[in-house]
Amino acid sequence: MGLLELCEEYFNTTNLYEVLQISETATEKEVKKAYHKLSLKVHPDRVKDDEKLIATEKFKVLGGVHAILSDKNKREVYDTTKSVDEDEYNVMKDKDWTVYWRLLFKKITEEDIKAYEKEYIGSEEEKNDLKNAYLAGKGDMDYIVDQVQFARSEHEPRLRGILTEMIEQGDIPAYKIFTHEPAKKRQRRHAKENREAKEAEELINTLGLKSGENSLELMIKQKQEARMKRMDSLIDDLAAKYGGKSKGTKRKASSKTESTAKNKRKK
Known about the structure:
Order of helices and strands: HHHHHHHHHHHHHHHHH
Number of strands: 0
Shape: elongated
Distance between the termini: 52 Å
Largest sheet: none
Strand content: under 5%
């Protein structure tokens, strides 16, 4: 089967842009980010054994799609003809797409996360994420802090201030659960955060981990998949910012719990 046929089989479309869920005007950076986000979901090393076969095939197809849309000449041909050189794809489809993926996305270290946090906090991106989380969660701060990157308890007064200003300006509705949040609800949220931070610290001590990329990778491997997925958006942005063609092993998304614990430790 050719690439377009495989796209139809696994992603229900022959449109390469629709496979990556991007527009035809997407930049090279947006193409790479979209590929990274989707490939993480079907990476052979990230799925359950009973899902590995199909996931591997999807992973291969995504690699082929990215190889075309990230190449200026191949992309121009596809944009013009809406077809791909199937003979060329048949030659490259047997390549090791895991190696291809590793060359595109380098390891993410604690230093990268800290640098990104410094850049993210107070940015327009944070405000947009905050607004979207507020609307999706209908003002529930439990939901908001679970969705917005680095939204720890010490940041809540600042985040509330941003949202309150949006409410006053008429950008978002005033949900009662936000404007009159019960004190006990807030206390439970903070207690949960502290408990998770403590658990993360205990895990670090149990594993004898130290700061640095290796400790981050080892700790990530110990966390549950649900928490790993919670930080996919963070890893997407980090990959786009720091990713390059430097060799490295795969790294998985860490949870906000890990980020919380690590930011509480001294450098």
